[in-house]
Design a protein that fits this description.
By secondary structure, the protein is mostly beta strands. The protein contains two helices and 17 strands. The chain has a 17-stranded mixed sheet that branches.
């Protein structure tokens, strides 16, 4: 029972206009449809299920629990383009374009394992012999993203100091127009004789959606990100190399769409800076190298906390240092490094009210990494 079908076309084209100018174009065109995967959720709290692992739930994985006319249609069209232009032996330009367009429409089944106490109303009943069948549909939902990036890349010397430079601008835009809706359908025994097993089909689901008031969740927003960045790797000597970079992002969220008013509300802007520094010293050229670096990163967050305060970007800082070894003409390579990553302003569920989130989470990750790659014989 069930199906998955579709096609994917992936044409590409490269054009070299002249020695200094070339283009690369590519596309991925997907169109498909598939019945629901057998996705089964646990009732909360899961301690009521009287099981410590999925095998103890006794689910019959050879049953789909839904008809194969409950299926979803999806499309995904991606387009890529790149232009390279060589100004000189030291400077070149790279222009990148990306566009992604996703579409989905139709019902999708999912299931919950329900404890016997919930179904029978007897608080002393143990075990979980029932399965709740439900639907999450999408209605002509689209998600579009476009990115345009311009890079200037240089490899040049100032005096005896070699510079490898990258500077550029980046524009990223996302337009989400998605509508999710659904309905709880019924509750059935999950094993043995199931008289209502065949009832979960498209006609009966549509009748239930029309009869009842399905839940709806519009996920509709528009965001733009404007970025600028510069980076340089500087050969101070043959044995000492330094690098520095900084990126600035301005994130603009137009807000969430309100179906009742037809307007976007809750617009806000975020600006963040991300620096990066590094140093490499080779006491023995191409054989032993000590390195250290610091880098900062961030993730723009959408939404507000329980007080209506707009979330800041989540920010991470990493410090790393170590040594790289190269011996026996490249037959033995090794790296030993220590890292320390600290993340702040993490958005997490608000314990006092699970319907909201709060931005006070932190995370620490640190440790030692060691890697040895040996090639004792050719091949």
């Amino acid at each position: 029972n069930g199906f998955e079908k579709g096609y994917l076309l992936a044409p590409s084209l490269s054009v070299k206009v002249k020695d200094k100018l070339s283009f690369s174009l590519a596309a991925e065109l997907y169109n498909g449809a598939n019945t629901s995967k057998q996705i089964i959720f646990f009732y909360f709290p899961p301690s009521q299920l009287n099981a410590t692992n999925p095998k103890e739930l006794g689910i019959d994985y050879k049953r789909t629990y839904s008809a194969q006319d409950i299926f979803q249609v999806s499309k995904n069209n991606n387009f890529f383009g790149q232009m390279n232009y060589k100004f000189s032996n030291q400077w070149r330009s790279q222009t990148n374009f990306t566009s992604t367009n996703s579409f989905s429409d139709g019902p999708y089944a999912y299931f919950y394992v329900i404890p016997n106490s919930e179904v029978t109303g007897n608080p002393n009943a143990t075990g979980a012999d029932y399965l709740a069948r439900a639907d999450q549909s999408t209605a002509n939902s689209t998600d579009q993203a476009t990115e345009i990036q311009q890079n200037f890349i240089g490899d040049f010397k100032i005096g005896n100091l070699r510079n490898r430079f990258v500077g550029g601008l980046d524009f990223f835009s996302q337009n989400s127009n998605q509508l999710f809706y659904g309905e709880n359908f019924d509750t059935i025994p999950k094993n043995g004789n199931i008289p209502a097993y065949g009832n979960f089909n498209k006609d009966n689901l549509n009748a239930a959606l029309q009869k009842n008031t399905p839940w709806t969740y519009p996920y509709r927003y528009k965001t733009n990100t404007y970025s600028a960045y510069v980076s340089d790797v500087l050969n101070i000597t043959d044995k000492l190399i330094a690098s520095a970079a900084i990126r600035a992002d301005h994130f603009s969220n137009k807000g969430s769409y309100d179906q009742s008013t037809g307007q976007y509300t809750g617009s806000y802007d975020q600006t963040a800076f991300s620096p990066k520094f590094g140093l490499v010293y080779q006491p023995v050229k191409d054989k032993i190298a000590f390195f250290a670096n610091y880098q900062n990163g961030f993730t723009n967050m959408t939404g507000t906390d329980y007080n209506g305060k707009t979330f800041k970007p989540e920010e991470a800082a990493q410090i790393e240092g170590g040594v790289k070894l190269n011996a026996f003409g490249g037959r033995l390579n090794g790296t030993i490094s220590y890292y320390d990553i600290q993340v702040k302003d993490i958005v997490r569920p608000y314990a006092a009210n699970p319907n909201f989130s709060i931005q006070d989470g932190t995370q620490l990750s640190k440790g030692v990494e060691a890697e040895i790659v040996a090639k004792p014989a050719q091949g």
